[in-house]
């Protein structure tokens, strides 16, 4: 029943879309070394708290479209946010979820997953092949869909290889940024994670204006930035299109955490250190006076 524009049939309808975009907020108080403007796209205003709400919605829609659910449970590796959104949306469909997550993930994310009803497997990284020592949760999730005793009972959306992850951000996040800046965006900053966000947004924006600069943020080895990946420690996701990336900035933990604190105390934006890393990278860029930069 559609009572009005602001009454929704369920919580999933609050996830960002071109018709219902997440806000874009100008950073006003952090001094910009060069010129131009930097905007933060507030993805934590999605209903389950992150940009991964978009990914989870498209992953589930893809499984239903392809007929891959049919009585199966979902298993998915995650550093937290995709899992939270996937479990929440699966609850609306009555589908059980098993989540494998690095044992070093923030405890509050593991608690949220369990609150939502997921079966949660905190996973030591030593369960993974030695050439990718930070991918233990991925290796464990794969065992559910390849093991003789379990393969007929589980389906894995696989955010790292599923093109629906890219499509989510091509059709929503990228389109929203283009609309909200009236096509004036000149720079886009996002982190390396599953790489659906940076690939999907970059593809959309560069199709409209090939001169838009796409800057990727990569943490250092041994980092503590949940959701971001260092590709010396982790395998590059299949869905990453490196031809769309103009520059990669490697960010240490310290300035990432410091910038997150500054964003809270100077801009009143309650974000985590992964966002801090992205914004710090934007402030290191020599932006021209007419720049319109957007940070996830």
Verbal overview:
This protein is α/β, with parallel strands linked by helices. The chain folds into two domains: 11-46 and 162-295, 3-Layer(aba) Sandwich (Rossmann fold), CATH 3.40.50; 52-155, Rossmann fold. Helix content is 35%, strand content 16%. The protein contains eight helices and ten strands. It has helices spanning 52-65, 81-93, 107-115, 136-146, 163-180, 196-208, 253-267, 273-284; strands at residues 24-26, 37-41, 73-77, 97-102, 119-123, 154-155, 187-191, 213-219, 247-251, 292-295. A six-stranded mixed sheet has the order 1-2-10-7-8-9, sandwiched between helices. Helix 1 (52-65) crosses helix 5 (163-180). The longest helix has 18 residues, at 163-180. The radius of gyration is 19 Å and the shape is globular. 48% of the residues are buried.
Briefly summarize what is shown.
With 296 residues, the protein is α/β, with parallel strands linked by helices.
Q: Can you give keywords for this protein?
A:
296 residues, alpha/beta, Rossmann fold, 2 domains, six-stranded mixed sheet, four-stranded parallel sheet, 10 strands, 16% strand
Quaternary arrangement of the chains shown? Answer: single chain
Please give the CATH architecture of the largest domain: 3-Layer(aba) Sandwich
Structural Rg: 19 Å
CATH topology of the largest domain: Rossmann fold
Mean pLDDT: 92
Strand content: 15-25%
Trace the largest sheet across and list its strands: 1-2-10-7-8-9
Number of domains: 2
Question: How does the major sheet shape up?
Answer: 6 strands, mixed
Shape: globular
Name of the CATH first level of the largest domain: Alpha Beta
Total DSSP helices: 8
Structural class: alpha/beta
| Residue windows where pLDDT falls under 50 for at least 5 positions | 127-133
Helix content: 25-40%
């Amino acid at each position: 029943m559609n009572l009005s524009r602001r009454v929704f049939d369920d919580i999933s309808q609050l996830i960002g879309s071109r018709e219902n975009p997440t806000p874009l907020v100008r950073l006003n108080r952090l001094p910009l070394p060069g010129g131009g403007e930097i905007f933060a796209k507030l993805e934590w205003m999605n209903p389950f708290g992150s940009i991964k709400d978009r990914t989870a919605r498209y992953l589930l829609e893809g499984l239903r479209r392809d007929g891959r659910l049919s009585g199966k449970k979902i298993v998915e590796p995650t550093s937290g946010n995709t899992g939270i959104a996937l479990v929440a949306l699966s609850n609306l469909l009555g589908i059980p979820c098993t989540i494998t997550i690095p044992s070093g993930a923030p405890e509050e994310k593991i608690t949220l997953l369990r609150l939502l009803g997921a079966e949660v497997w905190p996973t030591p990284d030593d369960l993974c092949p030695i050439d990718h020592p930070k991918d233990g949760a991925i290796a464990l999730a794969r065992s559910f869909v390849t093991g003789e005793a379990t393969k007929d009972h589980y389906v894995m959306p696989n955010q790292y290889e599923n093109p629906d992850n890219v499509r989510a951000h091509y059709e929503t996040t990228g389109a929203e940024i283009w609309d909200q800046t009236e096509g004036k965006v000149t720079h886009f900053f996002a982190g390396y994670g599953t790489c659906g966000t940076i690939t999907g947004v970059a593809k959309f924006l560069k199709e409209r204006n090939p001169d838009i600069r796409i800057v990727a943020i990569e943490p250092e080895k041994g980092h503590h930035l949940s959701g971001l990946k260092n590709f010396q420690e982790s395998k590059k996701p299949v869905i990453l299109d490196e031809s769309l990336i103009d520059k990669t900035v490697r960010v240490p933990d310290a300035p990432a955490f410091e910038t997150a604190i500054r964003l809270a105390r100077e801009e009143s934006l309650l974000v985590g250190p992964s966002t801090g890393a992205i914004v710090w990278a934007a402030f290191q860029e020599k932006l021209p006076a007419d720049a319109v930069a957007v940070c996830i």
